[in-house]
Amino acid sequence: MILESILAGVIATSPIDRVAHIPTAWQPFAQCVSARESRHSYRARNRSSSAQGRWQFLDNAWRVNGGIEWIVSRQLKKAGVSWKGRITWVRRLDATPIYRWPAWAQDAAFVGVVTERPSGWKHWYLSGSRCNGLVPKKTQPKEN
Predict the structure, then answer these.
(1) N or C: which end of the chain has fewer CB within 10 A?
(2) What is the pLDDT of residue 2?
């Protein structure tokens, strides 16, 4: 029993699991956005724009200057992945449409966007959406 618990802890904390883990404070917002944007589908594609994947990243906009792949790379670095491992993934992701990225990479990109900058969540702001009210309070601007 103890060994099983230890092994489960090791498995649950692999670098891939860590980068794909949505922080607890962000989970309500993430669930709402994921339902609204893609009905939780990692393979979703918007017919009228380049938006793709679970989080509907605009492929054309997020790839400028190698942006989104490097967000994933920074998440992998935080999880202890070597430069060689990170650059391998950057190259794979760069050559692949976002909707075909592994689920963990799409989630890692989302986590990076919402946690690296206080206003990162605003990429999914939609006037009148209940999701806006689910942003963790410490990241929202103070009202006067």
Answers:
(1) C
(2) 52
